[in-house]
Amino acid sequence: MEVPGCRWPQLPVLLLWGVCQQINVCNESLMVEKLPACGRTFEEMMKKVDSKKWCNLTEFIMYYDNFTQCTEREANNASCFWPNPLAEGFITGIHKQFFSNCTSEKVHWEDPPDEILITLILIPVLLTCTMITLVVWCSKRSDILV
Fold first, then answer.
1. pLDDT more than 70, % of the chain
2. What distance in Å separates the CA atoms of residue 137 and residue 123, rounded to the nearest whole number?
3. Contact at 8 Å (CB) between 126 and 79?
4. Is residue 52 a contact partner of residue 102, using CB atoms and an 8 Å limit?
5. What is the Rg, in whole angstroms, of the alpha carbon atoms belonging to the chain?
6. Are 27 and 78 in contact (CB under 8 A)?
7. Are the C-beta atoms of 80 and 95 separated by less than 8 Å?
8. Helices 85-99 and 61-77 sit at what angle, rounded to 10 degrees?
């Protein structure tokens, strides 16, 4: 039985490894030709979702999952790794087309109340002063070091 990509001189290595690696070259032109079909399918599915809900992932998560699986399948069919720069560029283009207006809300950070803030600042400062004092005091007492 002939294993594709393997030659008889490799048989001892095959038996030791248990596998015979096949060398595949990424067919980027085939992948670039096939990926737009994934984008068109995703675009058709997104037409079912109200454009005001495009920023809510729960509204179209299944469509996006299908899109992701399609791009991965087409990259693998072209013997390419996924993700790769070409697939990522295509996915980024889809993101720009559908999700460019989706910005995450900025979290407004506030300082804690003054009582908590003062406590959080003073504890390490006082602890550091206490440790320095203890080290200096112990180093001056030679009877403790013996």
1. 78
2. 21
3. no
4. no
5. 31
6. yes
7. no
8. 160
pTM comes to: 0.56
**Predicted local distance difference test score (pLDDT) of residue 140:** 82
- The total number of residues written for the chain in this structure: 146
d(CA 115, CA 78): 63
The DSSP code sequence of the chain is -PPTT--GGGHHHHHHHS--PPP----HHHHHHHHHHHHHHHHHHHTTS-GGGTT-GGGTHHHHHHHHHHHHHHHHHTT--SS-HHHHHHHHHHHHHHHTT--PPPP---PPPHHHHHHHHHHHHHHHHHHHHHHHHHHH-HHHH-
| Residue 108 one-letter amino acid | H
Q: Which amino acid is at 56?
A: N
Q: Write the pLDDT tens digit of every residue in 70-88.
A: 999 999 999 999 889 999 9
